[in-house]
Each structure stands twice: as C-alpha cells, then as structure tokens.
Design goal:
The protein is mostly helical and about 400 residues long. It is about 70% helix and about 5% strand.
C-alpha cells in the first residue's frame, strides 16, 4: 500500500468523526483503519501522517506521538519540516564514533540520549541516530508486546510438544506390550497344536506298521499250516478279516492325512497373518522413526527458545542498568519509595514487591520498579527526568483544540 493511500485512509477516517470524538481515537482505531499497527510503519510514513494530523486536525504533539508511535521530537520535526539528513561534512567524525560506541554499550536508545550524553544539537542527534546508527547497524526496533506474544507462543508450543511426547510414549509402550503378548500367544498355540497332531499321526503309523508285521508273520506261517482245505479256508477268512482291518487303518491314515493337510493350511494362514503383523510392525517402526525425527526438531526449537530467552534477559539487564545509571535517567513516574505511579496490576503478582492502593471499592497494585528494574525497560510510558526537562524546554506551545 502506498503512502498516499495510507494518508487518505487516516484523513477520511478523522473527517468522518464528530469534533468531540477526534481526541478519543486510540492507536487500536488507527490500526483497524490502516490494516497495520502504526508502530510497524516506516518512520518517514509516520512523519507524513503526523504532519496531516497536526495541520488539518490541530492535534497536540503528545497526542499524535502516542497514537502513531513517534517521539514528540519526531512530531515536531515532521510539523516544522526540518531535515534529518544532509549533515555530511557538518558533523565531526569523532562525535559519530563516540555515538556508535555508546549505542553498542547500550547507553543510548534514542536521539535524546545522544543530546544528554554528547551535548548535541537535536537535529544533529536525529541525523546521527536514525541516518547513521540505525541504518548502518541494521537495527530493528523490538516491539515489547510482540516479544511477549512470541514468548507466549513458544511456551504454548513447548507445552503442546510435552503433551504429544507423553501420549506417544504411552502408545509406544502399549503397542509393544500388546504385540509381545500376541506373538507369545500365537507361537505357543502353534507349537502345542503341531505337537498334538504329530503324536496322533505317529500313533496311527505305528499301528499300521504293527498290522503289516503281523500279516507278514501269518503269511510265513501259512506255508507250514496248509495241509488241508479246512485250514486253508479258515486261513483265507482270517486273511480277509485282516485285509478289511488294514483297509480301515489305511482309511484312517487318509483321514489323518486330510487333517494334517488342513492343519498345514491353517498353519500357512497363521504364518501369513503373522507376516502381515510383521509388516504392520515395520510400518509402526517407521512411524516411531518419524516421531523421533519430530522430537529432534522439537528439541531444536527448544534451543531456539533458550537462545531467545537468553538474549531477552541480557537485553533487559543492559537496558535496566542504563535506565538506573543516574538519578537523571530514572523515570519521572517513580515515587520516593521506588514504586511506579503510572501503571498498576489488577491483582497481586507473585515475586514482585507490590503496594496496594484503594480508591473506593477499586484496588490497584503498584510494583516497586527499583527492585524489579526490568519492568521499566518493557514500559512504553518510561520517560527519564532529563528527557522531561528537555522536552519542556524545546517543545513549543500546543495549538488550540479542534
């Protein structure tokens, strides 16, 4: 979206409001109109919008600064049309070097710090800070709200990963135990049925073998016994009886053979089912490998979170030391006991020194920022005593209300 489109959206929105509603517009309202938080807009775009808001709607510097995330000094520069570049040859190189060193040591956060530390002209300080340090150092302003949201997102992901790992671990254990039980049961039943069938076949074979041996013996004896027709007739009848018995035994063997064949088919079917189970187990193992890969990525993400938290902690520590480095750098909203007078929590916060203040039925809890300095670093309302005195001196009188 072009600058002209953004400016037109702001102008049309402000003109649509009654005069008594204009000062009630919040940064959230402008975010909805623009489709983006003003704090994320380039500085030069915000300077154009600031000039429109001042010239056409007669809004005060501080109102404009708070709505579009600019300093009052930036708003003044936008309104007056002062140049923030074109200082080449007018600034001493040693001054620029000193400014860069102070920035890298964490002692300056904005052009006002350069004015205080190096006693520079406001325009020169703006030029050095924005056109040299910010551009050449590749700095990007970290929005505190975005940083906290990103941290909360990381924590939610960590919690979700932890729950996923627990569920997967439990399912892996359950599947392994179930599969081991199934394999043991299948193999034991298979062995038992096979042993019983082999014993039955062996018994039938032994009985048939014994019958055959008896027939051979009787045939040998027949050579001796044949002496008369009667004995021969009796012998033939006995042979016939034995042959019938042998036929029955052979039929039994055939039946046993069919049973064995059926058992063989059943065994093959069981082995095929077992093969399918093995294939399913291989697929399951592949899933476990994918899970382990995901867990590896999770731990990599945790390392990134750890690095982010370490960087954020270091940044908070350095900035808090800068804020409280001298009496003049302390925020104007801190009382004599070290408590913040600007912002309060709706409830008590564990780990913080809190002062309870009752206003009618409403209770507010103000933190002691001298004991928890990092709170000032995260506060958008922080303003040093030096900055307050400087702005009171240089800021021109606000125009009449629209």
């Amino acid at each position: 979206m072009s600058v002209n489109e953004l400016v037109s959206k702001v102008r049309d929105f402000m003109r649509s409001l009654p005069p008594d509603r204009i000062r009630e517009v919040t940064r959230g309202d402008l975010t909805k109109v623009l489709g983006i938080d003003p704090i994320k807009l380039p500085r030069d775009v915000k300077m154009v919008i600031a000039k429109i808001l001042y010239n056409e709607f007669k809004l005060p510097y501080r109102w404009i600064a708070s709505r579009i995330a600019l300093s009052p000094n930036d708003v003044q520069l936008a309104v007056k049309g002062l140049r923030i570049s074109g200082f080449e040859g007018r600034v001493d190189v040693n001054v620029i070097v000193s400014a860069i060193k102070l920035f890298r040591e964490g002692k300056i956060r904005n052009p006002n710090d350069l004015i205080v530390e190096l006693k520079l002209d406001p325009e020169v300080a703006e030029h050095i800070f924005y056109d040299i340090i910010i551009r050449n150092e590749g700095i990007t302003t970290l929005n505190v709200v975005e940083a906290v949201q990103k941290l909360e997102e990381y924590l939610r992901k960590i919690q979700g990963y932890s729950q996923d790992i627990e569920v997967v671990e439990r399912k892996v254990k359950e599947n392994i135990n179930t599969y081991k039980t199934y394999l043991n049961y299948s193999l034991e039943n298979f062995k038992k049925e096979l042993d019983e069938e082999l014993k039955r076949v062996e018994t039938n074979v032994n009985e048939v073998q014994e019958r055959l041996n008896n027939i051979k013996k009787e045939l040998r004896e027949a050579d001796i016994k044949i002496g008369g027709l009667t004995e021969l007739s009796e012998y033939i009848r006995n042979i016939g009886t034995d042959v019938n018995i042998l036929k029955d035994e052979i039929k039994n063997i055939k039946n046993d053979t069919n049973i064995l064949k059926s058992f063989k088919d059943k065994t093959l079917s069981s082995l095929e089912s077992l093969s399918n189970d093995v294939n399913n187990f291989k697929v399951w193992l592949k899933g476990v490998e994918d899970l382990l890969s995901m867990i590896s990525r999770i731990f990599k993400g945790l390392e990134e979170v750890s690095t982010f938290l370490t960087t954020l902690t270091l940044w908070l520590k350095v900035q808090s030391e800068v804020i409280f480095s001298s009496e003049g750098m302390k925020c104007v909203h801190i009382d004599s006991e070290g408590y913040c007078t600007k912002h309060a929590f709706p409830t008590r916060i564990s780990g913080l020194n809190i002062k309870e203040v009752s206003k009618g039925n409403l209770k507010k809890y103000y933190p002691n920022v001298m004991e928890s300095k990092w709170l000032c670093v995260l506060c958008k309302s922080y303003k040093s005593k030096i900055e307050e005195e400087f702005l009171e001196e240089f800021e021109e009188e606000e125009p009449e209300e629209y």
